[in-house]
Design a protein that fits this description.
It is built from 8 helices and 5 strands, in the order βααβααβααβαβα. It is an alpha/beta fold.
Amino acid sequence: MKRFVIDANIAAKWYLPEEDSDLAERLLELGGEFHAPEILKTEFASIVWTHSVAGAVSTAVWRLGRDGLGTAIPNWHRDESLLEQALELGLANRHHVFDCLYLALAVSIDGVVITADKQFLVKFSRTEHAGRVISLASALG
């Protein structure tokens, strides 16, 4: 069974009106194992905050997501257990630790990160981790 690490921008598409939200919904039908580091919850709240400040949604979306993410992503991993590897990945690839937490988790479970973050995709497409960070379209393809 495939193991998918869901990052915050994909999770946000499940609850916010964003580009490719319909594609993100299709992920739920893939049948793989969904995993995430705990930081996803904080990043999700930050994304909701951004949308709320812009007047696009209310913070009720955060509560809906908080409750729904536990069902959609049954496998949560403590950030602390991933920090050392995430820092090493970040330093080796000159990329921030937040994204590298997702990558460290994917490496540790032999899975892939699904993201809509183009910078994250491009950065790791030229490293030994090419294929470990994939787009939403690739995951569905």
